[in-house]
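Ticket #4471: structure export looks truncated?
Reporter: QA, pipeline team
Priority: medium

Steps to reproduce: submit the single chain below to the structure queue and open the exported record.
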Amino acid sequence: MADYDYDLFTIGAGSGGVRASRVAASHGAKVAVAEEYRVGGTCVIRGCVPKKMLVYGSMFAEELEHAHNFGWTIEGKSFDWPTLRDFVNADVDRLEGLYGKTLENHEVEVFRERATITGPHSVKLASGRELTAKVILVATGARPAMPDFPGVEHCITSNEMFLLGEQPKRLMVVGGGYIALEFAGIFQALGSEVTVVNRTDRILRGYDEQIVERMLHIAMGRGIDFRMHCLLDKVEKAGDGCLRVHIGETNPVEVDQVLIAIGRTPNTEGLGLESAGVELGKHGAIKVNEYSRTNCESIYAVGDVTDRVQLTPVAIREGHAFADSVFGGNPRTVNYDAIPSAVFSQPPLAGVGLTESEARRTYGPVKVYSSDFRPMKNIFSPHPERGLYKMICDDTSGKILGIHMVGPESAEILQAAAVAVKAGLTKQAFDDTVAIHPSMAEELVLLR
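Actual output as written to the record:
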């Protein structure tokens, strides 16, 4: 290894890259990381962490609306977007510092500039410095996809939503995935008029259809305007600063901001992967084997840049498994079965395992148990919103194939239930468990 400057050179200091780098260093490797933007990556800097904080902030709006039913009188209540925005961004700064400290504590050298690959064992920094490494890890993540249409320059992506100078009174969200629905819920709760435009009649593909339908019904009841089977033709900026969005209807829709949230594209452009003959797959994702190795034996990739499963906890596991395999003498792979996930919409939904339609296609006869209930907390609200929990089981063995839910705190509740699905437990195990009463989670052991 003395023939190289480093044992490992990681490009990208997001969740996967940081985990891989620090674990490799703990195994005794000499490690360097290059990050062209900010340490922490999408999740910490401009993704799930600050977005969840915005969700928490927006939840106060509904609580305040019916606070009188709890016995509280709140006079002069108002919302100030810059206060919430600045608090969230200040905490992002704090978290970035902690991530940097983690690398520093593990003696990982950090180059705060862009790096590109110049060969199987070499990289070049933006400053012009050239370095060598026995192993190169690409962990550059993904970026928001932007379509091409007239006026797209007037639109923004999720990256810019955390930096808005002022809260848009009228917001259009283009897309039907989790990012689109989460921001739609946040700003609707904060008082913006929100329109969601989607090119098909399906939103949140991959989640159980019945659960999504319930969430959609609630979102519409809260005032979000959904325009299905619509495509953006063009966006025009008027003299007064508002945006006129043409979506195939007779009259354009006037809004103050347009958020494009149609998916994410792997960050592989301009990385120099061709200099090492690294193969790319669909949408420019890096092709890797089960050990995250590319077709070039000295170059690996983890996280969203591989487009396997675009979730932060998955990237972290991939980075850890890579480091253990290559530098720890413990070859490990990541199991992608039964990965739980959530959408922090309002209310949130979550799921793990097979949806009902997937289970029927795979197993044929299945049993579906459900609970359709009004959470006790919602009794204080004027909105008659009901939660829905579902459990899909193999008809013969009773093995749980999937659990899906929508309602308050769904993600928090599902995390524990996901252990049961991963462990291959049966419905009987839930039936044998005593309920915690009164709670929403008890519905999981009372499903019929």
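Status: closed, not a bug. The export was complete when the record was re-opened. Leaving a note from the reviewer for reference: The chain has three domains: 6-142+265-327, 152-262, 341-445.
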